[in-house]
Amino acid sequence: MGLTLERPTQAPGPSVPRPLPASGRGNRAGWVWSWAYSGMLSVLLALTVLLGYLVTGIASGSVDWTALLTSSTWSPGNLAFGGLAMIYGSAVVCFLALVLAVPVGWAAAVALSEYLPPRLAKPLRLSIELLAAVPSIVYGLIGIMVIRPFVADLGDVPGGDSLLAAGIVLAVMIMPTIVAVSVDALAAVPGRYREAAYSLGLTRREVVRSAVLPQARPGMRAGVLLGLARALGEAIAVFMVIGRADDRLPASLGDVFSFLVRPGQTLTTKLAGPEPMLAGTSGPYFAALCGLGIILLTLVAVATVWGTRGSTRTVARAPRARRSSAWLRAPKDRLTTVVRLGALLLPGALLVGMLGILLARGGAALNPVFWFTASEGAAGGGIRDQILGTLLLLVTTALIALPLGYGAGIVIGTRASAKTARVLETLTVAVGGTPTILLGLAGYVLLCTTMGWGRSWLAGAVVLVPVVIPVVALTTAGRIRSMPGEITEAALALGLTGSQYVRSVVIPYTWPATLTGLLLGLARAAGETAPLIFTATVFFGAPALPTGIVDAPVQALPTHIFTLSQDSGAPEAIAQAWGSALVLVLITAGLLSLAVFLRNRFEGARRWTM
Length: 610
Known about the structure:
The chain is mainly α.
């Protein structure tokens, strides 16, 4: 039986060859579509389970939503659950992060895309991607070492734990996201717009302002919103520098600055603290925490969905000649060039500075003995068991996430209509943007408590799977979208069924992008701390490799670093934490570098078979 295939179109939305439904030849190929749809189902299931966990928690006790949203008093002993101070803290640190990161990120993106030749732009872009892959726990360590003393001197306050410190750390974390997404938006502007603007006699600054930015602005805004989603969902880095003080709100506008340099609390740091363990799994205390989770998830979902919608809009305006005064044009052009190139140097300087600090403080990681010996006591020996635990979690996560994410990508790219594909992509991005602290709490209740697994390496891998699946699915769908029309025509001429089309055309064509997406997702998962704290890891006492599933915890690098960093008064603990951080960064950088190599190696490849 033959199969009719649609030819790709240039309409907005996913314009890809999609096999129409076909019965196939018997039932031999049914497993292909069963596998693909199970992948898409896993994405929807992750979102459903998370929402079900939060809604069930809220239903387990009464929640006073008015008090939760308008009161700043949080006192579980008095059954007072006011979340306003945490909402205020989240808003302040995110606002500070955007104010600091957006101007630098946008200027650096313009310099990278419009001012530098490709031979310089590629390595600089790689450095920014490496900066984006640095685990949040490492940002927290650097915040303790660099940002807190800076804030302590600035505000003349002891310690330096503050909203300002959290805002600065978040700014450094989200800047690479803003730069990377903005560069993609600028690169998508057709060259004819630039050529038309130059033909009008405009300078480079005027070309960028009049012809490039109007077209790229929706995508650049999307980068900001996706950065905001990450800032809202970040827990561990903020947890380490904010001080976690409840009930802190300024009494007047004059108190705003003084409160910036004082300890505070955010939604994520409240959920990442010890209270979820103390609240149990039912009652008003637990319900109030789930209410905070709903508020947090709603804020992140709005930012994520708004950001992904903004990236699909285009601006169909022809370039206009917007000239400055004749005698100011050249000086303005030179000044703008200097400012933008200077902004581009900042991410590179941050990466160099971060690596310098890691090498200076984590010198133990340069000794092979540190890698291959077990830890001793609280902060002695090496980190062999932590490395093995981290690798076990990553390998298990990859084995689960790869087939599911790949199947979801095939459904989005080959079976869904344009409108349905947009909805599925938006849901997939929303799952990828879910705060991992919520994944950890849901995994703790469902897997560790309800199913009786206790602390388990498999539970940790399961809660990391929703971090990786969206990256694999979206990169696979994007590769399918770029498939040339002649491939579809050849499949049409041969009369392939839908499953044959997937096996013989889609899989050979998309596997490089899929593998790249898997490595990028694992690079992010390698640095996740919050989910593992609740589900999978202990600080000491676990064997190097578990022998079962139930009550079988492991030791892992992110949670090891986090625990050591809390003992900031012990020099040996801090030295061990920095050495472990350098090892974790090297593992993450290795995964990312391999992903970038594969992306560059197979970019534009047309490898396919019939």
